[in-house]
Amino acid sequence: MSKAGGGGGAAAGPTAAAAAAAAQKQRALLQKADADVASLVDNFSALINIARVNDPPVRNTQEAFQMEMRASRMVHSADSLLKLVSELKRTAIFSGLASLNENVDRRIEVLSQQAEGTDKMLEKIGQEAAASLKELEAHYYSSVVRTPLYD
Amino acid sequence: LDLDKLPIKRLDAIDEAGNEHYPPDTSSEEQRLAAIRRVDFSWVIWQWQGLMESLQQAQQELTVVLDLISTVEANDAVAVTTTSKPKSLPNEVLDDMAVSAATKLQRLRHLGRYFKQSAKTMEQQFQKEARFYGSLIRLQQNWKVKRHRGSDSFMFDVVDTSQLDTARMSSMSLVPIDQDSSGTLSVQVPQKSCRFLSLQLRGAAENDALENNKSVKHAHSILRNIHKSIFEEQVFDMVIRETFVPSQGINVTGMREDFLQLAIGQENLLCLSLEHSGLNPKSLEIYLLHMFHENILRKVREKDCNLLGHFCMTVAHRIFSNKVHLELESVVSRVPYLHLQSLPTWHSRTSSWSLCLRVPQPILAADRSQFNTKVILKDGQISLMGEGSPSIAGSLTRKPSDGYLINSYNCDLEDLPTMLLQQVASQVINWLHEEALVLGMNVTRDFLCLYFDLDQGDTLGLVAHVDPDDAYGCISWYLTIDHSKDGKMSTDRRFLGYLSLEVLYSTLMDLINLCS
């Protein structure tokens, strides 16, 4: 079932509780996005720091492990951001009902006019067909084909 | 394998006095401890065993070394000083740094590959989703999207379920959405669900299959087909329901799950079926669907209107109307001065034609140049309305606009040609009569005959003869002479032939000259 989506499109219609839930969800998503971006930045800067070639004593193995860990965290944050985008898209499908309804109304309007136009066209075609039929019949029945040979 | 003793009290001993001694109850604490002791931790200990042994060894060696150092120091033989690794030569420093740098570089390259791989996977995932959601949002402009209960997938709800009242169609109205590995959206048509109404008049229907490639347009057309199919199933259901109420002239002669056969009147058989074809709808199908569309979807139904009855009457009328038309054409083709005009009525159960008799424009009587006979068919009832002359069979009404009499009467299909020809022939006679009157002649007329009085009491007659089965012409002419000689009546007849109106007119002139 559709739920009221994040953002301003849900002003009219849902109850106060639904509006509050929507605002809450919006805050949560923003927080998540912020957290993920911060994680990306942090881990990347840490990674750059670790990448420095040290004077001896050297802690290569330790640093290798740290690098892997930072990299994996970065990928994880990026993946989490992508999932956030998916969730936003899914929410978008079930929200924005006002604009969808408007669109439906507009389509109904356009299609009704088309239907009317088609009806008028059919009427016109019918009348033209009737006129053509009349003409053709008149031509046929007064043509040479019809005059009998005996007379 | 270790078996627990059953938790029943076991006898420890019996003393001489016969008292039984049981072991004392263990407290719960003791029982728990006993259970813990039973657990076998040896496998854990085994793993750490190596580490423990290494540490113990290291400790032993360290103890030995410390002992040695303190012994030596105690002996004062030598002072032990700490020493450190000697300072590396510059090339050793550089070597170390190079190795370190190389190791770092290798690690970074490895990370680089990891990042590239992840980026590629994420890119694919993103594009897949973008394609899917993009298509879904575009389709949502026209179709209602619903979430599948529980899971993360979607469906289209094709028809408002409040309009449906049978279980079979509500399962059709929810169409599941799939996506393939590249994210392209595809719509699943349920098996055997997409059926269309097909109307035949004792014919066979064709079957055709459509194959297409996938795209948003294709999804639209699939959904549209399902939508249409649901509506046509509704129509079929409603038609069936209407057959439960008996109506006159319509008999159900066959019914199956998706097939209905109706007999309309005595002769016509109508078959209505739900099939997988859906191609080439005839005009009757369109009419049936249009009628039900107005009633089901737009709810403009008038009270107490019998849709099926009306439709069947329409079908019967159309079939009969074709027959009438053939008869009319057959008559008109054998009477050269008759023109047939079709008069569109824009009503599904009424048809109308006009037979036009054109007389040559005479010089003297500048009156009308054509006489019309109108044939009107309402459902199965034929009625004729002919201008211009009284006839024996029929009621007369005066049409105020032009002062001509109009006959109107009903007839059957078998009688139609004869009645038409009689009407037309009498119109010709009427015209000739008017022409003669204008010239001042004293002529009398009968239904199909024009009489001239001759001298000596004889009567000359110009007689029209109608025969709808005559292959050469339906209206032929005779000349009759009634002699009254010596009180006896005798009649001579002479066949004149299938005369055109011009020849008739000149014949009339000749007769007038003869008689005056």
Polypeptide structure, described:
Chain B: Keywords: Nucleus, Transcription, Transcription regulation. The complex is a heterodimer of chains A (151) and B (516). Chain A has 3 helices and no strands. Chain A has 151 residues and is an all-alpha fold. Chain A has one domain. In chain A, helix 1 runs antiparallel to helix 2. Chain B has 516 residues and is α+β, with helices and mostly antiparallel strands. Among the domains of chain B are: 108 residues, no CATH class; 183 residues, no CATH class. Chain B is elongated. About 3% of the residues of chain B have low confidence.
Compute the CA-based radius of gyration of chain A. 37 Å
Order of strands in the sheet with most strands of chain B: 11-12-13-14-16-15
Fraction of residues in helix of chain B:
40-55%
Tell me the fraction of residues in β-strands of chain B, as a range.
Answer: 15-25%
Mean pLDDT of chain A: 84
Determine the strand fraction of chain A and express it as a percent band: under 5%
Multimeric state of these chains? heterodimer
Helix fraction bin of chain A:
over 70%
Q: How many structural domains of chain A?
A: 1
Q: Provide the succession of SSEs of chain B.
A: EEHHHEEHEEEHEEEHHEEEEEEHEEEEEH
Question: What structural class results from the helix and strand content of chain B?
Answer: alpha+beta
Extended strand count of chain A: 0
**Main sheet characteristics of chain A:** none
Main location (chain A): nucleus
Protein name (chain A): Mediator of RNA polymerase II transcription subunit 22
GO molecular function, one term (chain A): transcription coregulator activity
GO cellular component, one term (chain A): mediator complex
